[in-house]
Structures are given as C-alpha cells and as structure tokens.
Design goal:
2 copies of one chain form a homodimer.
Chain A (H helix, E strand, L loop, with lengths): L6 E9 L10 E9 L2 E5 L3 H7 L2 H13 L2 E5 L2 H4 L8 H13 L3 E5 L16 H18 L6 E6 L13 H9 L1 H15 L4 E6 L4 H12 L6 E7 L7 H12 L5 E7 L25 H20 L3 E6 L23 H13 L3 E5 L5 E7 L1 E7 L2 E7 L5 E4 L1
C-alpha cells in the first residue's frame, strides 16, 4: 500500500548562525510527534488526573507511548447532570494534562440525543434549542486553546426517528429537520471558534449519511472533517467494506476521521442485535484466539486507513477492556496487561511509520530528508532545533 | 375520512349590475373543474393530436371525462434524439390541445439518467452540464404559459450510483453530488419561469429521500412540491404504508404530488425483482379478479390521498393497459373498454367530490355555498358568470 503522502522528501540546508553552510556533517533527524492523528479514547485520564494512583498512571503512561490524540467525554447528561453546574474543572484539568503531554484533544459530543440532560425535557423546543446553542458557546469558547476539535453533533441520521425513549434533542431535530439542526449547531460552534476542527459523526455509513453530508455542504455547514464510527463488535468489516466506505465518503474531498473504532478480542456479538447497547452480558472475556484475530484485524485496518490520502485520524474507542458493553475491545486487558494489538500498533506508530535517522550534508550544506510528517528535533553535535516536517519545500535551518 | 379542506363554505351575495341584491332567488352552482389535480399520463394524446383517428379519439375523450391534469413526456433521448433537433412542435401542439380542454400539463422530466440522450456522452462533464442547463432554458422558456409545471429532476437518490449503463447524467451527478446537481437544475428552471411549479420526483420513499429533500431545502433549492412515485406492480402498499409515507413527507410542510401511481389488474410482479424494468414478459393480461382488486385498491388510495391536506395531485401513470412493461395498469383495457376502476374514479371525481347544486338567496341577496374547490359557473335564470371557489371569504357577484 502506498503511503508516500504520509512522508516528506525534503531538501534542507544546514547553516551556522552566520548563514555559512555546514558541509559534510552528520545530522540527526529525530521524530517527536506524528502529523497523523493516532487517537484513542482518553476517558481513563480523568481518574488519574483527578486522583492519581500508580495503577492508573500505568494505564495512562502506556497510552501516551502510542497515541498523540485523545477523545474526552462531554456527554451533556454527565457533564451537566444538574442544570447550571457543568463539570468544567475536571475536563479542563484532564485536557490540559493531555495537551502538556503532546496530545491533541477532541471533545465528544456537543449535541446528541443519547446521554442527554434529562432536565432539558421540561422546556419547550425553542428553549431547548437556545440552551443547546448556549451550551456550545460555553464549551467551545471555554476550552478554546486547549480543545480546538469537537464532535459537534452525533448520529443525526437516526436522531429524529430515535424512539427508544423521549429526549430533548430528538424533539428539536424532529422539528428543525436533520440539516436544519446540524446547521444551527455547526454555525454556532464555528462562530465561537473559527479555527476549530468541527466534525459531523455517525455510525450510519449507508447512503443516508452520504446524502446528509451532501445536503449539509450545499447548505453551507462548516464541516471540517467527516467522522465515521466503526464499532465492529459484530465482526470485522473486512477490507472490501472498509475500502468501499472510504471510496464513497471520499467523494466530498473532505478529511475523513475514523472516530470510534472497535475490534474485539473475544466472542463476536450476534448479528441480529441492531442497537449494540441491547447486548448486555455479565462478562465478555478476552481470549487468546480472539487476541490473535484482533491484532490481525487492527493491523489490516490501520494500514488501509493510513494509506488513504483523505484519512487524517483513527481513534480506537476503548483503550482498556471492559469499558463500553464490557467488551474485550481494548489494547490492554482488564488486569492492565498489554495485548498483542498494543505491541503491534506501537511498532507501527513508533517504528515502521516513525523516522529516527541520520543524514549527511553535502559540500553546500544540503541534505535530503525522507521522513514521516510530524514534529522533529534536528541535531548537529550538541546543538538541536525543533522543526515541523510537513511538506517538500526546501528549507534552511541555522544552528 | 375528513375532506373538509377540499371544500369551501362560502357566503356569496348576488346583485344586479346596479349593486341591488337579488333576493329570494334560486341560483345554480355548477362545477366546471377541480382545484385538486386529478392526473393521468397523457402520452396517448400525442398520436391523436398529430394523426387523429376515431379509435384514438375515443381514448382521449374518455380520458378527458375524468382528468384535469396530464403528464407529457420530455425524455431527452426521445425529445432530442439528434442533437439540435428537438421535437418541440409535437409536444407544443399536444400540450396546447390539453390546455384548450381545461387540462393542466406537466412536463416530465427535464433531467434524468434514464432515456437520456446518448449523444451527450461524447462531451466532457462541464459541457454536459452546460447542455443540460441550456436544455432547461429551452423547454421551460419555450413552453411557458402552456406548461408551467415540471418534474425538474427525476430519481436522484439512485442517480449517482446507477450502474446499469453509462450515461451523461449519472456522470455529472457523481461529480457535483446529488444536492449540487439538484440545485443547478432547479435554480435554472426557476430563473426561466419563476411562477412555475417545480417538482423533485423519486420512487425511493425511504429515509434517503427525506434526507435529500431536507438538504435541498436547507440549501435553498426552490422546490414547489414533493413528487412521490408509487408504481405498485408488486402489490398494493396498503393503507398503513401509504399513511406512513404521507406522515414522513409531510414534515416539510410542502405540497405533495403522487406523480406516478400504478395499481394493476392482473398478476402481481414477483417481489424479488428490484428494478421493475427487469420484468420483461410477452403478455400481461388483465383478469376479472385483478380488475376487482384494482378498483378497491385505487378507491382506497384516492380516498386516503384526497383526505390528506398536503396532497395536491394524484397522477395515475398509464391510462391504457399495455403501456409500460405491458402491465394491465390502466383504467381502460387493451381493446379500449373501460374497467371498473374507470367507472369508480369517474364517480368519485365527477359525482361524489363534485358540486352541482342550487341555493336560494335571502332577502339581502346572500346565499351560503358548500362546494368542492374549483371553477364554477353560477347561473341565475338565463344569466351566468364564471367564478373560482377557492376559499371561504365572502364574495359579491353581480349579474
């Protein structure tokens, strides 16, 4: 698979402070971070940041060895379970900790019919919408500079016809229509932070979602990237379906984020379950055969996604087993030990797709660097400088 | 079923030319046309208007006994089979004949991937779109005043993924996206004739079509009415599905037209056929049992649609058996004889839902008229006047 688009092939010239070329010199090219977003659910950082603890630190430290991108929960029903008392402090501290560790943070989600605040239901639709938009103002403005990436609205294809229980967001989506509500919430988030990356996110990868995106873009909704969920508790999509989904959602020319990926290392959930939340089990163990299957599936999937030019992010939903649905969905087991999938992904992200090398300058101080896009430290002897290697334009670096 | 919205309950005052009330006088209220559009495919008028003939005239005359609304074919591949040689004369004469007989005419369709002009395929996409828009200019402007109602674009849900054969319209729909192409063609048709009724039309009644309409409306596409096809060669939808479709497409608050209705009076097409065009048979007879079934189904369907406040038009696709797919889909048989469905529908349209009555004015010349909306002739003795009875506002009529 072709991954040339993930790399730079760049001519750099090394000079001293007086712009004299440093010729025939060995220079070190040390990658510090990826441009590609290797993401994972970062919910586990909350108890660690708030309460500390060695076992919790082992989890978050091992997370930080692979990932540069984390999703934090902003479910309205949890974030503000009592009206007017948002849980900002906890989320801000956790987000800041992640940012301090070189991790980009996405807030998930600003608008969703599930895990919604029950207290909203006492209001009329006009007031619900007003409070939804004010909520967006509060979070997007309040976290600006720390969180500049948001799943603005989640699962809109089903939103107005969701009928498992009454909720405030389904009510306003029914009234305003899908595109109407999407436009309201995106316009507001965009006004609050014009530089933010704003995602539409859905588990529905059918033609419904394509048509929804098409309508939104023609209606001027400022979507930065298309979010695709891929919870595969019922079995791996396989290469064909994955490529077919990529092909269909590439038509828009927008960046694609795989926002919620799950591949489990235990028994597969039966196919007849329609809403994954209906599968309630006492325990769902990770098995050796399951772990072997999981590592192969994750590797194939990440390789395919990394090779696709429009994919800019892959987020695995659960870092540790036993989170959502008690599924063996993580890179680490319930006891905190690492699965084969952890070792495999770390090898991909920090070795095969990672650049740590030496090059030599020619007599005019030029060297060619072939490197994965990202943040680098370039060293010459004792001296070093941080640079972003993002494109192939020539660059002069003075040390 | 409530059909109050189809009627006026109107106070009219009858005066002489000197504004003196004509009191205690019997006046006749004679309906001449419906506001509701009772439509049918009017393709059969083309051979009659162009070539005449008694047997052809029997067909068109019996058609005119029921319907006030006809669809004429503007399939690009037939209308302009050779580039630059449109079949305008034939269509104009036929449309004019219908208009002269009190029939409103709709052109079908201005843009569609099927029966498309093959010669378009030699052009690049930019040129195809240009020619598509010029084609819209030509037809919408050229027929203005005779045809002011158009199926602007047909079957867009499937359009960009239609893969039975290559065609020019699927190519440009793929490139511009569904809503992008819809917007282009509607904007053009609307600019050409701002007073025209412009329809989006589809056989797909799933959530796909709902989302497509939602996107179009939010993108500012000037859709006048939602067109819903209901070819039921594979069996009657039944009341539940019909009401469910009506409910879902009512959310937009736009007028709804049932644009292509089919209920057959013979054997039902097997359910495993996905594209109706794949069902190719040598003959498909109308049967006595089929005709009894057809009349019941058509009656139930028309009653439900007539009772729905947003439905403004019902068009049965084939007037005579043996047209599309050789199906027994008409109101008249292959030999021209009338089926029970013809007699039943005529009774509904020209009797049960028709007003021809007398009222008496009071001492001040006032009378109350309870009548189906439409065009009327009001008579007093030898005198008569034409009026539209469309709403409940009081009106003074001087004779």
């Amino acid at each position: 698979m072709d991954i040339k688009h993930r790399k730079v092939n760049k001519r750099i010239r090394i000079t001293d402070k007086n712009n004299r070329p440093l010729s025939d010199l060995e220079i070190g090219i040390h990658q510090k971070n990826h441009s590609f977003l290797f993401g994972c659910g970062a919910f586990d950082f909350i108890p660690y940041v708030m309460e500390g603890g060695e076992s919790q630190k082992q989890i978050t430290d091992s997370w930080l060895e692979i990932f540069n991108y984390g999703t934090l929960p902003f479910y309205w029903g949890n974030y503000e379970s009592e009206e007017g008392k948002p849980n900002k402090d906890v989320l801000m501290k956790t987000a800041q900790y992640l940012v301090d560790n070189g991790v980009r943070v996405k807030g998930h989600p600003l608008c969703w019919h599930t895990v919604c605040a029950d207290w909203l239901m006492k209001y009329d639709n006009e007031t619900i919408l007003k409070k939804q938009l004010e909520r967006i103002d509060r979070e997007v403005t309040g976290f600006k500079g720390v969180i500049d990436m948001w799943d603005v609205i989640n699962e809109v294809v089903i939103m107005p016809i969701f009928d498992k229980y009454d909720n405030a967001i389904t009510r306003i989506c029914k009234e305003k229509g899908r595109v109407g509500l999407i436009k309201e919430v995106f316009d507001r988030a965009h006004a609050d932070n014009p530089d933010a990356i704003l995602l539409l996110n859905d588990f529905n990868t059918s033609i419904n979602y394509e048509i929804l995106i098409d309508g939104c873009l023609n209606a001027g909704v400022p979507i930065s990237a298309i979010g695709i969920q891929s919870h595969q508790h019922q079995g791996y999509w396989g290469k064909d379906k994955l490529c077919e989904v990529l092909e269909r959602f590439s038509h828009f020319g927008l960046p694609i984020h795989f926002t919620e990926n799950t591949l489990i290392s235990g028994d597969i959930m039966p196919g007849h379950i329609v809403d994954l939340n209906d599968w309630q089990v006492d325990e769902w163990p990770s098995t050796p055969e399951g772990e072997e299957r999981q590592v192969k599936e994750i590797e194939e999937m990440y390789r395919i996604l990394f090779s696709h030019p429009l994919v800019e992010a892959i987020t695995t939903w659960d870092y540790k087993d036993g989170a959502w649905l008690k599924a063996p969905s993580g890179f680490i087991r319930l006891d905190g030990s690492k699965k084969p999938s952890y070792e495999m992904l770390k090898k991909l992200v920090k070795d095969e797709w990672w650049t740590d090398t030496k090059v030599k300058t020619d007599e005019n101080g030029w060297a060619t660097v072939d490197a994965f896009k990202g943040k680098y430290v370039i060293t010459v002897g004792e001296k070093s400088v941080e640079v972003d290697l993002e494109n192939n334009s020539e660059e002069v670096i003075s040390l």
